[in-house]
Design brief:
Layout lengths: L14 H19 L2 E2 L5 E3 H7 L5 H6 L2 E3 L5 E4 L4 H10 L9 E10 L11 E10 L4 H18 L5 E6 L3 H15 L8 H9 L10 H6 L12 H16 L4 E3 L11 E8 L8 E7 L3 H4 L7 E7 H11 L11 E6 L1 H16 L4 E3 L6 H10 L4 E6 H5 L2 E6 L5 E5 L3 H10 L1
Parallel strand pairs: 1-5, 7-8, 12-13, 12-14
Antiparallel strand pairs: 2-4, 3-4, 5-6, 6-11, 7-9, 9-10, 10-11, 14-15, 15-16
Helix pairs in contact: 1-5, 5-9, 12-15
């Protein structure tokens, strides 16, 4: 038997109804907050992620699905959505329109990593990106959007971890101080961190090795090195969150796993879902557009993991109000009755009702069991006797009350019953 690849999932009904419910909320919220949808390719030129995400990140060095196509071009399945959205912004000259430009995306991403709870090789993200504004109010807005979304789902035990990772000026000073602090312990670090030490020592904060983490105790953070502009921006972000009554914890060690971040960096944490407790992350990336070939253009955004949403809902005991029942089920006895029921079935579907009938040739008893299992509100019973009398039986499955109506009024009666 051929099975699905490791680290991927099959989402089956009725689970997919939950996905559609959540996706609809996200789309409705995007419209309310003024974000419009963008759809980019699932694969891109590898160079986009090398330059955009960062050559020293774990994503680029260890986790990307990269291959050569038949033309010899290096292609990578997208590991995240921001770089692709930024590439589209540049390629289609979207800077020429009204700014800021507010976009959202939704779809699968790919990273070759060890599958575990909340982490898969194919996973799905919803993300929003804002291009063109340096204002701290936009940073505050995207965090408010994410918190508003989770609360609408019924998740309330949330925490925002907040930091500023500075700008190139701050980072250069931090790099100097951090290298000075860690140089006496260089030989004690893991191989990855010894390599990061020269190229990008900030990435050492991402290391999961206990030894490397212990060496960072007392290390200078970016927050210790912020320039006046970055410090002022961070204070204004906090002021917006305070004004909107959005609680947050300052975390000077939060650096996120992508090199394009500048200034604001944040994660939203739900501790109940285990080690992978971050269910959303994002921040500002004022240098990304220029890094991948565009003009100097600020940006800010976030991405949230769809799979982690459902893990969080399950852990929190939240049941989504997903509609998975039928309005009406037709129980047909005999070929002539089945033909009549088919016509009524299609008429009701044109009215927008969720209607179904038996397609397996089941007995009357088996068809009634199917109607009950599918949570049908009403059952229409039609057989040869009913057709001879030009009368059809309609049964209310909630109170088991039955009524007999003329065959000509079946559609009208069902529509009236459902809508009332």
């Amino acid at each position: 038997m051929i099975t699905r690849p490791k680290g991927t999932n099959d989402f089956l009904p009725p689970t997919t109804a939950g996905w559609q419910y959540v996706e609809n909320i996200l789309r409705e919220m995007a419209a309310v907050y003024g974000y419009r949808e963008i759809r980019t390719p699932i694969f891109e030129a590898t160079e986009l992620f090398q330059r955009g995400v960062g050559e020293t990140t774990d994503i680029v060095t260890k986790e990307m699905y990269t291959f050569s196509d038949k033309g010899g071009r290096s292609i990578t399945l997208r590991p995240e959505g921001t770089a692709s959205t930024a590439r589209a912004f540049i390629e289609h000259k979207l800077h020429g329109g009204t700014l800021p430009l507010k976009l959202f995306y939704m779809g699968p991403m790919f990273r070759y990593e060890r599958p575990q709870k909340g982490r898969f090789r194919q996973f799905h993200q919803f993300g929003i990106e804002v291009f063109g504004s340096k204002e701290a109010s936009v940073d505050g807005e995207i965090i408010a959007f994410a918190m508003d979304f989770y609360r609408r789902l019924g998740l309330t035990d949330l925490k925002v971890r907040l930091n500023s990772v500075g700008c190139p000026v701050c980072r250069a000073e931090h790099k100097r101080r951090l290298q000075e602090f860690l140089r006496p312990h260089l030989e004690e670090m893991c191989g990855d961190c010894r390599e990061r030490f020269e190229k990008n020592p900030l990435r050492i904060f991402d290391c999961k090795q206990e030894k490397c983490q212990s060496l960072l105790v007392g290390a200078p953070t970016v927050a210790d090195c912020l320039c006046e502009d970055c410090r002022d921006h961070f204070e204004r972000v906090k002021a917006y969150l305070d004004e909107a009554d959005i609680p947050y914890d300052l975390d000077p060690f939060l650096v996120r796993g992508l090199d394009y971040y500048t200034k604001t960096a944040f994660e939203i944490i739900l501790n109940e879902i285990g080690a992978q407790s971050a269910i959303c992350g994002g921040g500002r990336y004022d240098g990304l557009i220029a890094d991948i070939g565009g003009s100097d253009m600020p940006g800010v955004g976030f991405a949230l993991g769809m799979e982690r949403i459902f893990a969080a809902l399950e852990t929190a005991g939240v049941t989504l109000p997903v509609e998975d029942s039928l309005d009406v089920f037709f129980v047909a006895l005999g070929e002539s009755a089945k033909t009549h029921c088919f016509a009524w079935l299609e008429a009701l579907r044109k009215e927008g009702l969720r209607a179904e009938m038996d397609h397996m040739g089941k007995s009357f008893k088996a068809q009634m069991k199917t109607a009950d299992r599918e949570k049908a509100a009403f059952v229409v019973i039609c057989g040869d006797n009913e057709l001879e009398n030009n009368e059809i039986i309609i049964k209310n499955m909630a109170d088991h009350a039955q009524e007999t109506v003329s065959a000509a009024s079946v559609t009208e009666t069902i529509v009236r019953r459902i809508k009332s």
